[in-house]
Amino acid sequence: MSDATSTDAGLPSPSDALGEWRAAEQTAAVARRGRLGAEAAATAATEAAQAAQVTADTAKRAAEAALMAEESASRTAAAAWLAAAASDVGASEARDDLVRADAHEERAERAYVEALARTSDAGDGADG
Q1: 57-102: per-residue pLDDT in tens?
Q2: DSSP states of 61-109 as a string?
Q3: Model-level pTM greater than 0.70?
Q4: Is 11 helix (H, G, I), strand (E, B) or coil?
């Protein structure tokens, strides 16, 4: 059964356009949460890398018994820097996803407003 307010073929009805807009809003909200999570992970990984580097520098100055600690700390720092780099990529991808989601939301809102206007215009023509 078609929507009572459906419009010309190929153009969404206000109901369909509203549904698309709402779905786009939800996608944008999820993308925002993902971006925030990725940025928090990137910050935490950077801080972990800095802390591991400090540990590596301190271990370097230690006695010969600390050589194993220095090697471990250096490996930890390298792994943390890799994690930080990967998190930065994730944050960048999350920002890109957010831009796409926001653009989709804007298009869906515009389609909804246009669909309402077409419906209103069609109703005005029927009354006159």
Answers
A1: 776 676 666 677 778 888 888 888 888 777 777 778 888 888 888 8
A2: TS-GGGHHHHHHHHHHHHHHHHHHHHHHHHHHHHHHHHHHHHHHHHHHH
A3: no
A4: coil
